Amino acid sequence: MWPSTLLPFLYTPPSSAYVAAMSVVSLVSLANAGLAELRGNHMAYSKFWHVVSGAGAGAALLKSRDGMLVAYAPALVAAAASFAVPGAVDGARAEILSAALAIHFLKRVLEVLFVHRYSGSMPLDTAVTIGTSYLLSTVTLIYAQHLSHGLPDPPVDLLYPGVAVFAVGIAGNFYHHYLLSRLRAAAAGGGGGGDKGYKIPSGGLFELVVCPHYLFEIVGFFGFAMISQTLYALALATGTAAYLAGRSCATRRWYESKFEEFPARIKALVPFVL
Predict the structure, then answer these.
(1) Inside any domain, residue 243
(2) CA distances (Å), 13 to each of 7, 21, 119, 230, in order?
(3) What residue intervals traverse the membrane (predicted)?
(4) Helix 91-114 / helix 159-190 crossing angle, nearest 10 deg
(5) pLDDT, tens digit, for every residue of 170-225?
(6) Contact yes or no for 101/142 (Cβ under 8 A)
(7) Do residues 100 and 138 make contact, with C-beta atoms less than 8 angstroms apart?
(8) pTM
(9) 48, 55, 72, 151: which has the fewest C-beta neighbours closer than 10 Å?
């Protein structure tokens, strides 16, 4: 029996083998990916692409911008298309969740097109893997929400606080992506130090942590979980936090290896803590 007294903020999980399996797979696979980042086994994109052992040997490559579009566009299409599928989006909570997912991935696509600055390539299989993961998680979030329609609402309603948390996450993530894009532009134009023109980021929460954009992405995913209040959404948010924590620690270690005087006060993800 579902322990509603212990978890009063979640819907009773539906009797769906698919959703149950995806909850476990998402949490475990993302947490394992975070551990892999800590061990130096990096996903082949961003600044870690060139340090992946054997990466690119005979592999099909895309321009980085094209690769990131492959990663984000399918989830955007799925979130937007959910409104056109009869019965897929039932009730205000489901509508808000699908809208938030569409906003999240539309922002990602627009950032790829107009904000981020790329210089290099990305393995096709990496782009497809990321895109498939985002697509499956988006579809499963919407499906799990659909299955909760008609069930008794959780005793603790987190819908509108979740909207606020999501808004903070997406705004903070965009702001720090913008700061990173300005940094890359300055490095490209001014011959910045470090590998491939990288500089130590500054401004905003970059004064306290290496990856504030990841911190706000985690906030956004917990916003999804609060809007949804399904077990799958919570598992996905927790797994995302574990993965991005591992990648943040790997990023901080990378900066330490490239800059001799990297400030010890700057943490990886959470100010003053991690």
Answers:
(1) yes
(2) 11, 12, 44, 7
(3) 16-38, 127-146, 158-175, 205-225, 231-250
(4) 0
(5) 999 999 999 999 887 665 555 444 445 678 889 999 999 999 999 999 999 999 99
(6) yes
(7) no
(8) 0.91
(9) 151
